[in-house]
Fold:
Amino acid sequence: MMKKLEPEGWKAPSGYANGIEAEGRFVFVAGQVGWGADGRMVASDLAAQTRQALRNIASVLACANANVNHIARMTWYVVDIDEYRRERRAIGEAYREIMGDHYPAMTLVQVAGLAEPDARVEIEATAVIPAR
Structure:
């Protein structure tokens, strides 16, 4: 079970939760980029890479009999925050395609670069699977 933590009187966050309370088995997903199973980038644009990175997270979670609804926390690293802002609508569509209306606690950070030179985004996740 997960419970969103939203302090009384605070403006509702847009597209994320301020906090999540959860109990269960933890799954930590390393940073995922927009490459397919063959290790090649699926596209050069941020929205398409985001869609694939989220699919990759879902695939890793499936190995633990979990799904994206178990994600309690995500950290997004982008190489260009202005690109993120420009592509926000397409990124939102990609997000909802994979994540539905599940909005965990999230952080977005611009970084100088990522380990994979062609990556525009890298996303890591922490999931909590409820005790049986």
